[in-house]
Amino acid sequence: MAKYLVIVESPAKVKTVKKFLGANYEVAASNGHVRDLPKSRLGIDVEHDFEPKYITIRGKGELLAGLRKSAKKAEKVYLATDPDREGEAISWHLSKALNLDEKKMRRITFNEITKTAVKASIKEARDIDMDLVDEQQARRCLDRMVGYEISPLLWKKIKRGLSAGRVQSVALRLIGDREEEINAFIPQEYWSLDAQFGIPGEKKSLTAHFYGKEKQKMNIASEAELNEILKGLEGAVYKVAEVRKGERTKKAPLPFTTSTLQQEAAKVLNFATSKTMRLAQQLYEGIDIKGNGTVGLISYLRTDSTRISAEADAAARAYISAEYGEKYTANADTTENKNKKAQDAHEAIRPTDISRTPQAMKESLSRDQFRLYQLIWKRFAASRMQPAVYETTSVKIKGNEYLFTVAASRVKFDGFMSVYTQDEDEKKAQNVLVRSIDQDTNLSLEKFQPEQHFTQPPAHYTEASLVKILEELGIGRPSTYAPTITTILARRYVAKENKNLYITELGEVVNNMMKQAFPTIVDVNFTANMEALLDKVGDGSVQWKTVVSNFWPDLKESVDRAEEELEQVEIADEVTDVICEVCGRNMVVKYGPHGKFLACPGFPDCKNTKPYLEKIGVKCPKCEGEIILKKTKKGRKYYGCEHNPECDFMSWQRPSEKKCPKCGGYMLEKGNKLMCADNQCGYVEQKAKNED
Questions:
Q1: 300 is known as an active-site residue
Q2: Burial of 75 (0-12, 13-18, 19+ CB in 10 A)
Q3: Which residues contact 604 (CB under 8 A, 6 or more apart)?
Q4: Whether 304 contacts 477, CB under 8 Å
Q5: Element at 659 (helix H, strand E)
Q6: Pairing relation of β-strands 189-198 and 206-213?
Q7: What are the helix (H) ranges across 28-129?
Q8: What are the pLDDT digits (tens) for 89-132?
Q9: Winning range, highest mean pLDDT, from 154-163, 562-571, 581-590
Q10: What is the rounded end-to-end Cα distance, in angstroms, of the chain?
Q11: Is the pLDDT of residue 344 over 70?
Q12: What is the separation of C-alpha 179 from the centre of its chain, rounded to a whole number of angstroms?
């Protein structure tokens, strides 16, 4: 009979851990959290020291009864939930729910599910870290307060089923702010000037880029400026003024953190953050490998540390030396974590055994598991390798008073790039210079290649870039990025099209209300400071109830004020002149999950509905039909003609009824300006106040 009980979170781990520990150990799973705040009410006693009122999660009673029975029989109970703040809290909740005797209860953690790590964790068993538990309690209570106090307000003022969140609402604001930046962006014209030179004995021409004058870099802002430069180059004799050769190194990348893994998997594999986390969880918990049974292939997936254990580091260097040679092996550990906000409790994400190459594992993995494992393996291997070395050449070509430059590089030593390259590495490597050039080389001008360009607006956020900015700003933690993005997509606040994230009409309404009524909650700096404060709870320097008790009064005051003030702007159903063809009533504008629609006011007797064509009072520049506000299938706003598909006019920006005084074309609203839709025209004017 088993002497010891080990409780893990996931049933997937049970078999793997049991195999490592042997017959004296019974291994069972809690299936995640077993206690939580009640769904039906706030669950925090704000009158009595903010004490949380935890209850058993519905459906967990039978499981807990089974665990209680096993715990009574066991000499010792090891709580082996995940090695992070959430896992620590689950262990604490288990100890309470099972009424565990403190003398026979121990907490163990392993960063990877391997025989060595699991066995070592038993020897290093400890007490539950109450500082980490308190940090989780503080986060849970703050999230509950924001969600349960603000969400009902959104239900009342906008529609049922909406939600607000401490991290979620800030993420929505970032996307909304970026959308405003893009909409207000006015493109600026600029020109580039390339010159192609023939070189004796070379089949390929040499392309050089216009620089300016010797000590002055010049930007070409217009065609007039370009023509002036071309005039100044008439009859010029072109000479190689300088050839400079050098060397630059490109450092090996750091191993993955949760954030960088999500970003890279989104860019390289086109994985949503939620998909990356789901696959990484599977690789961590264990994969059935032919001939080896169930094996955890990667270390723990929720981390913002780039640290690597001495054992894993040594094993990686030995592997690289054997497979690639000594000259490819890095000299020393260069994985110091520069991020001050990083929680350094864990290692970076890495393979548990570097000798398990992606190719060797391929048969045992699904296609997506394999692609993610390969990415993690390559990145880790690269992080233990030497930098890449490039040989660089820069050439200055003089013609009259102007300079043209050529910069090129070639890989001299590939180092880590023999294993892992990123897109930009490959692009740079392709820029190869004609080798035989020096200061005596005769150059003959073949042609100029002038090109007009326009500055581009900031890019829309993608899942990858949103995760990056959240991390940079110190908002949320590795475990929150994926669920945050999943929530704002599921609520239809944000639409995802071709990787880009766009705020929807519903998202705009919610975001504007949050900014108006709860400016502090959606303030980036406030949220980042709150995260830093919560981290201090985790290291024991701040009491968790102090954080919660300081947060509550301001939140409550904002909610009460919003109740009063926002009531005044509550909008009744807008009656239209569209007649219901079923019962003859005037139809009204309603707001649904996908935005506005027309509904019969006679509901439920008459259930007739129609799409709402919101006219903006501007004629179509193509056919003189009415321009209407429309939405893509995913909820992104655009402006199109009522005669679609016969008329294909569409614009992401709102067209103005005012015509361009310069070319007669249509104008677009860009923040507080009007701009001609034709970039070539480039006319811009300030919008009149009554046009806002």
A1: yes
A2: exposed
A3: none
A4: yes
A5: strand 655-659
A6: antiparallel
A7: 61-73, 85-97, 115-123
A8: 999 999 999 999 999 999 999 999 999 999 999 999 999 999 99
A9: 581-590
A10: 78
A11: no
A12: 16
Q: What is the tens place of the pLDDT at every residue in 291-342?
A: 888 889 999 999 989 999 999 999 999 999 999 999 999 986 544 444 444 4
| Domains within the chain, CATH numbers bracketed | 4-128 (3.40.50.140), 149-184+459-567 (1.10.460.10), 189-251+388-454 (2.70.20.10), 258-383 (1.10.290.10), 574-691 (no CATH)
CA distance 111 to 429: 38
Q: Which of 60, 121, 122 is nearest to 90 (CA)?
A: 60
pTM: 0.84
Is residue 690 over pLDDT 60?
no
Walk across the sheet containing 655-659 and list its strands.
Answer: 655-659, 666-670, 673-676, 684-686
Element holding 510 (H helix, E strand): helix 505-517
Q: Which residues contact 134 (CB under 8 A, 6 or more apart)?
A: 537, 538, 543, 544
Kindly state the tokens that stand for 200: 């004796």
Question: Buried b / exposed e across 405-415, counting CB within 10 Å, b at 16+?
Answer: bbebbebebbb
Q: d(Cα 8, Cα 108) in Å, to the nearest integer? A: 10
* Cα separation, 543 vs 527, whole angstroms: 18
- The CA distance from 119 to 80, in Å, is 12
Q: Are 408 and 319 in contact (CB under 8 A)?
A: no
For 410-452, the pLDDT digits (tens) are 889 999 999 998 765 554 544 556 566 888 888 999 999 999 9
Tokens of 317: 């260097």
Which is the catalytic residue, given 300, 328, 481, 493? 300
The per-residue pLDDT for range 14-53, each reduced to its tens digit, is: 988 998 998 999 999 999 999 999 999 999 999 999 999 9
